[in-house]
Amino acid sequence: MSRIQLLPEEVASQVAAGEVIERPASVVKELVENSIDAGAKKIEVMIRRGGISLIRVVDDGIGMDRDDALLCLERHATSKIRTGHDLAAIATLGFRGEAVPSIASVSRFCLTSREHGALAGTEVMVNGGKIEYVRDGGDAPGTQIEVRSLFFNLPARRKFLRTENTESSHVEQQIHLQAIGHPEIGFVFVNDERVVHQLPATANLRDRIRDLCGSELTNELLEVGDEKIDGLRIRGFIGKPGVSRSTRAQQIVFINGRAVENSTINYALREGFHTALMKGQYPVTFLFIDMDPAAVDVNVHPAKREVRFREPSLVRDAVIETVRRTIETGRGEWTKNFDTGNRVETARVSFPAIHNHQPAIDTPPLIAPREQIALRQDWPALPSQPQPAKVRTEPEQIGNQQSEPGNFKILGVLGRLYVLMENESGLVLVDQHAAHERILFEELRRRMEEQGVSAQRLLMPLTIQLNPRDGDWIAQNLSTLQKMGIGIEPFGAGTWKIDTLPQFIRSSDPLPLLRDIIDELRQTSATTSKLRLGEDVIATTVCRHAVKANDVLREPELVRLIQDLLRCELPYCCPHGRPTMIQISYGELEKKFGRKV
Fold first, then answer.
1. DSSP sequence for 390-421
2. Whole-angstrom Cα distance, residue 116 to residue 138?
3. What residues does 26 pair with on adjacent strands?
């Protein structure tokens, strides 16, 4: 007796449905994508009990005649592709012809559709995959689909659904994604007879983001210039430095209008923000990437959530470059409020009185001249030490400066840490430790990139076992590793000998750190500095040597600190991603004091 048998059609349909339809949100995603592909200008979604009891999707798209309405219920029946060659260049959201029959096989399903200009439409009722009736319908042009009692014939699958509130939140998240991805389409979302969203079609993405996420977040976004890089068109919005989340919930990326997840893009976003992002945090992005459909494969995941690029390095480098340009553009706008014009005015405030009456004259300058830094024994041995600008301490340097529009006026120091300043927009608070960290970090990194890393020869060489793939990568990048102070050479089959390490590596067991460096360098783009590996160590080093809380700075030192900070590449955050400056506008102050609603 043969042990291999064909599955009954009913069972095969349920198996296929399990791959495509995970929960009510999956149903909404597939049906809304079909509506978008049909050219809908308005889409209404209604659910009850989290979508378990009812899901209704109504659109005003092109509609279907009777033949198409019946044929769409057959598995692998689709209008999106015709031949195998079409799979290599998919330009629509749907293409497999699996969603509608899969949904119909696990629910009580009703489809009503009518073409524009047709006298009558078609209504088809399906119960658990079996057609009950087909008749004429009189609904408006477009398509309406009702899905009732989801998984009624799969009780085991139904038990895996979460609470109604959880399922509702997943449905709402899908509406968010589709609405952001297609701002030219109006969306209405009704949950248990309550209108949650009523979004009119908008001409621009910013208005749609404001409607969904609020003006507070929208005001913290930087617009990505609509430019083409290597055949890719990248546009949208990214959060300003310091605007981040602990999860990727608001890291939204669209490829040709499809919301996707991709590790290459995730890495590129992280690399683009770089030190403007705290570790463990993720950027806020609404990023759209338009590219040749033949250069991306969307047929690699049952739910089409993941994609694969033909040239991932090209996409990665383009995203990194775009994010960097956007942040640099945002830096210009940011510094308008913090532009000193090489001048800083100080208010007539007694700084010693602010510092708990400790005489400033007895406190050594914390922004030390080069000769003082060179005497510090705990500073890492590098080709040359970072040199904060030498500060002149003559009192007349401050008194002779004149106030100019947009200049700072230093008011004092709060808690021996926060420098209080006034500019045209209101009150500015500067974290003196974070500011000095950023200054020292960029200076030390620049010197390392220009002069290389000082290395030390090991008394006893180390050996490391690497697989053939890693070994081949090291062989191709020996010159880069040597510039970074790592002396490594083959030492037998699969073994490499390390006899030189950068002097800033102080670990008692450097091999784990070296493996991390190799893994990190493998992910860097062609345009990324290969000295990026030392930045975590540099950040830790400058943190020890930057001015601390309770360190008293004289007036000239405060002035020079602000001026040096504003000359940095990323002045608004420290190397760990924390903000260096906070602006409190006059409007915010007036609200706090009840002078303005």
1. P----THHHHT----TT-EEEEEEETTTEEEE
2. 12
3. none
Span 435-439, average pLDDT: 91
Beta bridge partners of 121: 137
Residue with tokens 């955050």: 573
Residue 541 near residue 380, CB atoms below 8 Å: yes
| Contact (CB, 8 A) for 538 and 445 | yes
Please write down the long-range contacts of 531-534, taking CB distance under 8 Å and 24 or more positions apart. 531/445, 531/448, 531/449, 531/453, 531/483, 531/484, 533/484, 534/445, 534/448, 534/453, 534/484, 534/502, 534/504
From the options 3.40.640.10, 3.40.470.10, 3.30.1370.100, 3.90.226.10, give the CATH code of 455-542. Answer: 3.30.1370.100
Return the amino acid letter for 569: E
Bridge partners of residue 526, in order along the sequence: none
Chain position carrying tokens 């408006």: 140
Q: Say if pTM beats, i.e. exceeds, 0.85.
A: no
Task: Give the number of other Cβ atoms within 10 Å of residue 259's Cβ.
Answer: 19
8 A C-beta contact, residue 337 and residue 581:
no
338-381 pLDDT, tens digit each: 554 445 555 544 444 333 333 333 333 333 333 333 323 333 33
Q: Please report the sign of the dihedral spanned by the C-alpha atoms of residue 373, residue 375, residue 378, residue 380.
A: positive
The structure tokens 């990326």 sit at 253
What is the gyration radius of the CA atoms in the chain, in angstroms? 31
Other Cβ atoms closer than 10 A to 242: 18
Distance between CA atoms of residues 61 and 285, nearest Å: 30
Contacts for 286 with CB less than 8 Å, ≥ 6 apart: 180, 205, 209, 221, 236, 237, 238, 252
Say if residues 279 and 76 touch (Cβ distance below 8 Å): no
pLDDT score recorded for residue 88? 83
- Tokens coding 378: 């705990």
| Residue 435, pLDDT above cutoff 50 | yes
First to last CA, the chain: 83
Torsional sign, CA 147, 148, 152, 156: positive
Taking the domains of the chain in order of start, what are their residue ranges? 9-199, 220-334, 344-447+546-592, 455-542
pLDDT, average across residues 283-292: 95
Residue 285 confidence class, pLDDT cut points 50, 70, 90: very high
* 162-30-180 Cα angle (round to 5): 90
CB 308 within 8 A of CB 90: no
For residue 597, count CB atoms less than 10 angstroms from its CB and return exposed for 0-12, middle for 13-18, buried for 19 or more. Answer: exposed
Angle between helices 555-566 and 432-451 (to 10 degrees): 50
Closest by Cα among 285, 316, 21 to 153: 21
Q: Which CATH number fits domain 220-334: 3.30.1200.10, 3.30.230.10, 2.60.40.420, 3.30.70.260?
A: 3.30.230.10
Confidence of residue 572 (pLDDT cuts 50, 70, 90): confident
**Rounded to whole angstroms, how far apart are CA atoms 313 and 299?**
20
578/364 Cα distance (integer angstroms): 27
Q: Say which residues have a Cβ less than 8 Å from residue 122's Cβ, sequence separation at least 6.
A: 64, 65, 66, 69, 70, 111, 112, 113, 114, 134, 135, 136, 137
Distance in angstroms (rounded) separating the CA atoms of residues 183 and 476: 47
Q: In which residue are the tokens 């095969």 written?
A: 12
